[in-house]
Amino acid sequence: MPIPKGVLTLDDDGTIVEIGRLSDETESTEFYNGILVPGFVNSHCHIELSHLKNIFDKGTGMSGFIKEVVKLRNGVDEEFREEAMRVEMQLLYESGVCAMADISNNSESFSVKAESPIYTRTFLEFFGTEWSQAEEILTRANKLTKKAKEFGLDASPTPHSSYSMSPELLRAISKAGLKSGWLSYHNQESWEEEELFLNGTGPLADQYRDRGLSTPPVTGTPSLIYFLNNIESTQKIEDERVLLVHNTFCDSESVERATSSIKSLFWAICPLSNLFIHNALPPLELLRRHNATITIGTDSLSSNSALSIADEIKCIHRYFPNIPLTQILEWSSFNGARFLGIENRFGSFEVGKNPGVVLIDNIDFRKQHLTADSRSVRLV
């Protein structure tokens, strides 16, 4: 729980040596107006898309968003893309992010992440709608994983989503990811995705057919249940950490199925991105009723105006005002650290940890909410 007039005592490298409450002021006491929180863990980001800031249209839905990604992703040269990533990584650090789960489709972000003080686990994401592509894509996944590790990055393959992959590729890439101990998966991000699996219809189905791409089987079930059935047809998910990302259109049936199947299950929300693309939000009250372990991500600058955890918290306050700030802060740091397996170093204020110290100012202490003027800044 919050400590009014709380005091953190740190050693020279930022490790916490004592936590208490102000009784006697000393020469070394520094005072800040606001709240001190541990460094944030951004549990879902696409830093390699940083050059796409402020150029996508809002409210296009998933099919329209995919069209814009295909059209605009490589619209500037590599030097510009790299500089945009470097700028945004620095802003992430300055705003208090200490660790991040980042998605990569290629190697462009590797050097930027390797140079950053932010700890990053890189999820190498793959697509492919045709069964005949699976073996060739798996070979590329292995090569890209090896290259990431040459940069000193923790990295492993991961599937993008059920609708963007053949059943064969979904199983193969998921198996490779689970072998590493981690999986990150875009889950039920759009109603178009659900319509595709339930009925084989909708804008996403139409777009795939127009492009001559195969669509996944029509199962009459939510896409998350299709994903789990497909994976579990060849292997069991045991102690591996699985992150379901977005969850904008998840339902009770899907949540119950997932929570009963996966021991180390985490649910990443990116509310500002969901509003940007779909004008919709994940059912947080449903997830809370099921005691879901929720984390917070920012997604990419193709669907967000800033990579700011504080802004995501403000969004949660705006649409879910009854969720306590203490719980949201747990989502923003400790739960993400648990997913990444770094909770012994990051995610909470505990003696012996070095989680970073972040100040969030302009707090409404009566409501226990951030305000429109709140911002986060790294102190340590």
Can you describe this structure?
This protein is an alpha/beta fold and 380 residues long. Helices cover 38% and strands 20% of the residues. The protein has one domain: TIM Barrel. It is built from 14 helices and 15 strands. Strands 4-5-6-7 form a four-stranded parallel sheet, sandwiched between helices. α9 links the parallel β9 (241-246) and β10 (264-269). The mean pLDDT is 96.
Key features of this structure:
380 residues, alpha/beta, TIM Barrel, four-stranded parallel beta sheet, 15 strands, globular
Could you write a compact summary of the structure shown?
This protein has 380 residues and is α/β, with parallel strands linked by helices. It has helices spanning 61-72, 78-94, 110-115, 134-150, 167-180, 191-199, 203-210, 223-232, 252-261, 271-278, 284-289, 309-319, 325-332, 334-340, and strands at 6-10, 16-21, 35-38, 40-45, 97-104, 119-126, 154-159, 182-187, 241-246, 264-269, 294-296, 357-360, 363-364, 369-370, 376-378.
Order of adjacent strands in the largest pleated sheet: 4-5-6-7
Tally of individual domains: 1
Specify the CATH class: Alpha Beta
Give the low-pLDDT segments: none
Shape, per Cα inertia axes: globular
**Measured distance between first and last alpha carbons:** 21 Å
Q: Radius of gyration, rounded? A: 21 Å
Helix content: 25-40%
How would you sum up the major sheet? Answer: 4 strands, parallel
User: What is the CATH H-level superfamily?
Assistant: Metal-dependent hydrolases
Q: Helices and strands: which structural class?
A: alpha/beta
Supply the CATH architecture. Alpha-Beta Barrel
Oligomer: single chain
What share of the residues does DSSP label as strand, in percent?
15-25%
CATH topology: TIM Barrel
Number of helices: 14
How confident is the prediction overall: mean pLDDT? 96
How do the SSEs run, as a string of H and E?
A: EEEEHHEHEHEHEHHHEHEHHEHHHEEEE
Count the beta strands: 15
